[in-house]
Write a structure and sequence with these properties.
Radius of gyration: 27 Å
Oligomer: single chain
Shape: elongated
Number of helices: 12
Helix content: 10-25%
Largest sheet: 5 strands, antiparallel
Structural class: alpha+beta
Strand order of the largest sheet: 2-1-5-4-3
Length: about 625
């Protein structure tokens, strides 16, 4: 992968032509269908090496075929004509006439368009509507061949692959259309190198970029840009980068990032690079005015746009607090403001504070004067007269504290685990839909197996509707231990279930590569664009503080822990703090425990992208 660190330099306004393409016939598909087809493979082969070895495949190719990039880089793409990874010969149902036409076009340096029977790694058949385009260098020599593949299901009953292991299959039939393409190839035009461009580049840059390249990930786009000058120029389009980010990170994340001050001047291409590589991530201490008085611990905080909101906490002599403070980081001189609100909830600590529907604050649970709580209060921070309002949700969870929560789709509150009466640890998971706050209903997510009961863990959202649980104080038989286990659940499934990514003695557990964080509780987890999770701080056995940053990508086939070394001034005390992400690019750390006192007055910022004001 090559990221261009200075994309505005070097062009000089010149009209550069990086390569020339052969002539070709009409497109066998409409331009609109390019966006509608999700099962699109993108392959680049080196034409200067014998047998056209593959040098790049996109993620879509991997997902559709079941082959990982590392398995096929350096090979010719004809392996898709063999049924399964161990087959040595082309399958007898593959049309040899089409194969011969592909060979002829490659020898002549002209385009090929046609349909060909292919096979996934698990042996299941696919129809591949294939387009091969030769790429010419400045000396009119073919340097690369680009293959664009539109896959659909092939309605062929070939039976199981001998010796195949179905659980290793990456097949997912709902990813693709069930429509069959015609197997008749479409002859290409006559060779005419060096003068005309093919019709795929006669489409406007906007159509080409937005309909094809926008389906790739930010890393894929950076790789495509390194193939040749023409593709490099196309990938400088800001509208393309915005679509790439939206497709990769989700519309909600994109909308939040658009509100970042100076984001437009920073540019989507640079923002994608910095949030992918974290190359400019840095700590800095924030100096703000005002104060949160009286002092407290075990409070909860969350972000509402570029504002940090703090509610409740444990005061002197275990006094439960119920006041609300706001810090506007967009202000010229940010300072804590005590917000006077009507009908505040009963004081509490060990609760969670979340934001749904853009500006609606949600408080759940905690411990108050009367013991544990399971009530829900909401506050519209942008209302003319902010007022806390209790929501009587039907079938609520057990009263609890030290649980964890996160939000889905901007409207749903997810609550997991915690501590119930008599110190009993919980392992349940509940969902409350607050799209409408009139009589919402709690729904317990029923699963066949749950991770061990725990408190003080973190719950993060990635990939749209997937949640990740990490750490906490977990039950192990009659004992309780700090944990570094990782569990995930996909809430978009009809029957969600917990899956163990790594853990000690858990069903299906494994240990990802890299250096895993020491077991901990009372830490924080920050969800990064693209699905990665950043773990910071917490109470770690034998350590006074835990200020090291760890990062994990649960979407990887083999998730790997990685230590993230960040320059600047990190918090001195990373236990008992609270963290929230402001504007999608700034993680704000409030307070911390020294072992003797609470440092609520200290604020630190972990900046994930360049600050452009």
């Amino acid at each position: 992968m090559e990221w261009d660190s200075n994309s505005e330099e070097g062009s000089g306004g010149e009209d550069e032509e990086g390569f020339l393409l052969s002539d070709g016939g009409p497109l066998p598909f409409s331009a609109g269908s390019l966006l509608e087809t999700a099962s699109c493979g993108f392959v680049v082969s080196d034409a200067l090496e014998p047998d056209f070895p593959i040098i790049y495949v996109n993620t879509g190719f991997e997902l559709v075929t079941g082959y990982r990039a590392e398995e096929i880089l350096g090979r010719n793409c004809r392996f898709l004509q063999c049924r399964g990874p161990f087959a040595k010969r082309r399958h007898q149902l593959v049309d040899s006439t089409v194969v011969s036409e592909i060979r002829r076009c490659l020898e002549l340096g002209v385009e090929f368009q046609g349909d060909l029977l292919n096979f996934r790694k698990d042996g299941s058949p696919l129809m591949n509507r294939l387009r091969l385009t030769p790429i010419y260098g400045d000396d009119k020599t073919i340097t690369h061949v680009i293959g664009i593949q539109f896959f659909t299901e092939a309605n062929l009953d070939l039976g199981p692959l001998p010796g195949s292991v179905t659980k290793e299959s990456n097949r997912s039939s709902d990813r693709f259309s069930s429509d069959l393409m015609s197997s008749r190839f479409i002859p290409s035009g006559s060779v005419n190198p060096g003068h005309e461009t093919c019709e795929i580049f006669q489409l406007s840059d906007e159509v080409l970029s937005h309909k094809i390249l926008s389906q790739l990930t930010p890393r894929d786009i950076a790789s495509v840009a390194s193939v040749c000058k023409r593709l490099y120029q196309l990938t400088k389009n800001e509208d393309l980068w915005r679509l790439v980010c939206q497709n990769a990170w989700g519309s909600e994340t994109t909308r939040v990032l658009e509100a970042v001050p100076g984001a437009k001047r920073l540019g989507w291409g640079r923002l994608a690079r910095e949030l992918t590589t974290l190359e400019v991530a840095a700590w800095r201490k924030l100096t703000v005015g005002g104060a949160v008085e009286p002092s407290r611990c075990n409070f909860s905080a969350c972000a509402v746009g570029n504002r940090v909101v703090l509610f409740g906490g444990e005061g002197v002599n275990m006094q439960p607090m119920n006041d609300t403070f706001v810090l506007d980081l967009n202000a010229t001189n940010p300072e804590w403001q005590h917000v006077k609100v009507s009908s505040p909830p009963p004081g509490r600590w060990g609760h969670t504070l979340s934001c749904v529907n853009d500006s609606l604050l949600v408080v759940f649970g905690g411990c108050g004067r009367q013991g544990l709580l399971n009530d829900v209060f909401v506050l519209d921070l942008d209302a003319q007269h902010p007022t806390w309002r209790e929501i009587s949700g039907l079938a609520p969870p057990l009263p609890r504290s030290w649980h964890s929560s996160c939000t889905l789709d901007g409207t749903k509150l997810v609550v997991s685990g915690g501590c119930a009466d008599s110190g009993v640890l919980l392992s349940d998971t509940f969902l409350l839909d607050l799209a409408t706050i009139e009589k919402p209903v709690w729904r317990e997510i029923q699963v066949a197996w749950t991770p061990p009961s725990r408190l003080g863990h973190s719950l993060s959202v990635y990939g749209g509707r997937k949640i990740l649980m990490f750490g906490g104080l977990a039950k192990s038989g009659p004992l309780r231990f700090r944990s570094s286990d990782v569990f995930t659940m996909d809430l978009s499934e009809e029957e969600p279930c917990w899956r163990c990514v790594t853990g000690s003695g858990m069903p299906g557990s494994g240990n990802p590569a890299g250096t895993a964080p020491p077991p901990r509780l009372d830490h924080v987890a920050v969800s990064l664009p693209g699905g990665r999770i950043l773990i910071f701080g917490g109470s770690v056995a034998g350590l006074h503080s835990a200020s090291q940053l760890y990062i994990l990508d649960p979407t990887d086939e083999k998730p790997t822990w990685r230590i993230l070394n960040v320059p600047g001034r990190p918090p001195r005390f990373a236990w008992g703090h609270s963290t929230c992400v402001v504007g999608g690019t700034r993680a704000i750390v409030l307070g911390g425990q020294t072992g003797e006192e609470w440092m609520l007055s200290e604020l630190h910022e972990l900046s994930l992208a360049s600050s452009v004001v």
